[in-house]
Each structure stands twice: as C-alpha cells, then as structure tokens.
C-alpha cells in the first residue's frame, strides 16, 4: 500500500473483524453478536505509529489470554506525519510504501517500510501494556517445560495460549557476570533475548 500518513496509526488495507462479543462499551448496543473472523491486515503502526504493521489471525480470537489477537509485527522504520494542506511538492515527496508478508514455513510475519524491515527489540515486554500478556505466555510456556514448580507458574494456563518461539542454538551469548561458579548470560535468539542464570553450568532461572 502506497500512502501519505497525515496522522494516526490506523488500518490501510486488508480485512479486520475483531468480533462483537468482546463485552465492551463500544459493542454493548449491537444486537447481532459475532465472534471475530480470520484477519489479515496492514496498519500504519498500531502501537508503533508510522511503522508498517502487519497483523494476522486464523480465527480472530484472543492471543495469550489477551482480549485481542496479538499476532503482529512492526517495521523498524516509522513514517513521519505530513499535514494534508502541505504544498504539492511536499506531498509528492511524502509517499511511502507499507508492506507485510507472512512466511508460512517459519510462521514469521514481517513488515516493511519502503522495502526495509529491520529488527525491533522490546527491552521490557512485561512492562508493556499491549505485549505483557505475550511475555506471560512465554514465561508460562517456559515454566511448563521445567521439572520444578516455579512460584509464578500457573498450572491452569491453557497450553494452546503459551508462546514458545524456537530457542535452539543462540545467535550470540554475552556473559554478564561470572563469579565462583555462578554465571549470568544474555542469550540472543531469532525472536527473543533471554537472561539466563547458571550454577556450575546448569540453568537455574531466566
């Protein structure tokens, strides 16, 4: 989609049906209650205004126990805001190309702004209002794989709502601390950065 962004972070193209069964004030007066439907749409950012934000959902349902579907991506670049009453030459130069693509073999969604995707890392996902539910789903998926019961583990957390990105061989490992057999590493994978505490070479926490 080619667009000039005057303001906002709204939908550009695609299909989006969030459902009218979310028990929100906005849907309280709707007589026909419907579940969300399959979604694939391109936005001018959503939570990162001006980025090329792709969003997909196979059923329009919630992700990671969040109210909404959260399978989304953002390009690293973000477009500027250009007022609609700008001179013609400014408007002519303000066109930008927003794009998204889904790799079904890797289950990977990517957004491009003017042909550039880039990496975007969220350093504190548990403190992000939108992404905190995905962080919890990741941690619950991790806890479920460990033998010991963790203090923050929720045995009732639905297994199909866990977030389990591939974490095989790390792309890089940075040693943050190494003292008397206690070691802390920052491991970077394709989709995650994980701080891992080890004692005598065995992982004790993350």
Molecular structure report:
There is one protein chain. The chain has helices at residues 88-92, 132-145; strands spanning 2-3, 11-15, 39-43, 53-57, 72-74, 96-103, 108-113, 172-179, 182-188, 193-199, 202-205. It contains 2 helices and 11 strands; from the N terminus they run βββββαββαββββ. The protein has 3 domains: 2-120, no CATH class; 121-163, no CATH class; 165-206. It has a 4-stranded antiparallel sheet, with no helix packed on it. Helix content is 9%, strand content 29%. The chain has 206 residues and is mainly beta.
Would you kindly provide a brief summary of this structure?
The protein is mainly beta. It has helices at residues 88-92, 132-145; strands at residues 2-3, 11-15, 39-43, 53-57, 72-74, 96-103, 108-113, 172-179, 182-188, 193-199, 202-205. The strands form three sheets. A four-stranded antiparallel sheet has the order 2-3-4-5, with no helix packed on it.
């Amino acid at each position: 989609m080619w667009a000039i962004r005057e303001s906002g972070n709204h939908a550009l193209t695609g299909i989006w049906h969030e459902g009218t069964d979310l028990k929100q004030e906005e849907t309280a007066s709707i007589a026909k209650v419907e579940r969300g439907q399959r979604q694939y749409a391109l936005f001018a950012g959503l939570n990162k205004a001006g980025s090329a934000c792709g969003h997909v959902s196979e059923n329009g349902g919630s992700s990671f126990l969040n109210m909404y579907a959260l399978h989304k991506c953002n390009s690293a670049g973000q477009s500027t805001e250009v007022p609609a009453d700008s001179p013609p030459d400014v408007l002519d130069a303000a066109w930008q190309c927003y794009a998204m693509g889904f790799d079904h073999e890797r289950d990977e969604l990517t957004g491009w702004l003017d042909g550039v995707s880039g990496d975007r890392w969220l350093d504190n996902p548990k403190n992000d209002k939108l992404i905190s539910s995905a962080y919890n789903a990741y941690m619950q998926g991790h806890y479920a794989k460990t033998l010991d019961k963790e203090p923050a583990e929720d045995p009732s957390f639905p297994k199909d709502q866990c977030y389990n990105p591939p974490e095989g061989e790390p792309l890089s490992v940075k040693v943050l601390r190494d003292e008397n057999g206690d070691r802390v590493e920052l491991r970077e994978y394709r989709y995650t950065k994980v701080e891992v505490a080890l004692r005598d070479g065995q992982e004790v926490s993350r």
